[in-house]
Amino acid sequence: MPATTVQPALALDTIATPRLWAFTVAGLIVLLVLDFIVTRRPHEVRMREATGWSVFYLALPLVFGAGLWIWAGPTPGVEFFTGYVVEKSLSVDNLFVFMLLLASFAVPAALAQRVLLYGIIGALLLRAVFIALGAAALQSGTWAFLLFGAILVVTAGKVFRDAAGGREHTVDVSSLRSVRLVRRFVPVTDGYRGSRLVVREDGRPALTPLALAIVAVFATDIVFAVDSVPAVYGVTEDPFLVFATNAFALLGLRALYFVLQGALSRLRYLNHGLALILAFIGVKLVLHWAHGIWTWVPEIPTLASLGVIVMVLLTVTLTSVRANHRDQRQARPAGER
After folding, report:
1. Angle between helices 74-104 and 239-251 (to 10 degrees)
2. What's the domain count of the chain?
3. Distances (CA, A) of 164 to 158, 168, 278
4. What is the DSSP letter of 298?
5. What is the Cα 128 distance to its own chain's centre?
6. pLDDT 10s digits, 244-286
7. Where are the beta strands (DSSP E) in the chain?
8. Is 337 within a domain?
9. Which end of the chain is more exposed for a tag (fewer CB within 10 A), N or C?
10. Which portions of the chain are predicted below pLDDT 50?
11. Bridge partners (DSSP) listed for residue 201
12. Torsional class of 73: left (φ above 0), alpha (ψ -120 to 50), beta (otherwise)
């Protein structure tokens, strides 16, 4: 009777020491506290303020990645930058849904950044849980690479079908289970009460629409985590790098929202590009799994992955801009073309 072959558990290598983990988490907490201080007094965010914070949050990962490159070597540095580009491109899609949620709840412009901040904190907590689960799955055997790859390929197919069919992002707040559940057990005020989440009305506590908007954003974070965490594990197996790329990509979302809210709707081919990126990383994971069984199966180097992802994003941007200009020319009267 032939002996059965059991897939060996993987020992995930990590560059992170306890001190590096502590330093990174402490820095993350400081940045979140700084964000709370900035949004303590609700105000409408101007373009100059949003641009300044966006530049700051784009510079942070560059400095962190450069330090990582010098301290740990080029391989972790390339993996970090590649994972960050993947996460940042996927997080732009998050902004579409955030826009729709804020519009659905008629969130006042002065309170929008507070909703986004709570959403980012919820996303960070969820990503930490999913990253830990992903690391545990990888340690149990190489089958996890096949599972993650399949999830990404299936997701890519759905995103591409929606994009090809011309389906736009839609959010029906009344159909969100999380919102319906909250409304079933807790009364909700008929209007906003500044930045307060809970008030007392008729002698009992009641939630404000601001609290419901935060619940809705948090619920959508769960869906995004299912896609993004396997995508970064397709770039690196180091849980620390997966966490760092997620954290840096999410931190700048609040400011980036106000910079890109007018431009996002013009990236008409963004979902096509995201589908290609997800499918590419899914195939990369499947090849990695197959290489562990059949050594003749090729693997895709991380540096090549970075090149492919950057090229896809550039192509998406350029084709969207070109299509927008073409539509503008066609919309002009014949004499003005």
Report:
1. 40
2. 1
3. 10, 10, 16
4. -
5. 13
6. 998 998 888 877 877 776 666 677 787 788 788 888 888 888 8
7. 198-201, 204-207
8. no
9. N
10. 1-9
11. 204
12. left
Three-class secondary structure assignment of 204-228: EEEECHHHHHHHHHHHHHHHHHHHH
Domain residues for the domain of 230 are 18-330
CA–CA gap between residue 237 and residue 201 (Å, rounded) = 51
How far apart are alpha carbons 213 and 105 in whole angstroms? 6
Q: Please give the Cα distance from 112 to 195 (Å, whole number).
A: 10
Alpha helices, DSSP H, located in 294-334: 302-331
Q: Is residue 222 one of the residues assigned to a domain?
A: yes
The residues, ordered by sequence, that sit 6+ positions from 258 with a Cβ below 8 Å of its Cβ are 45, 47, 49, 50, 112, 113
- The DSSP 8-state label assigned to residue 197 in this structure reads S
**3-class state of residue 78 by DSSP:** helix
Residues in the chain: 337
Rg (CA), the chain: 22
User: Residue 198 forms beta bridges with which residues?
Assistant: 207
- Domain annotation covers residue 335: no
Residue 8 lies in a domain: no
Q: What is the pLDDT of residue 62?
A: 93
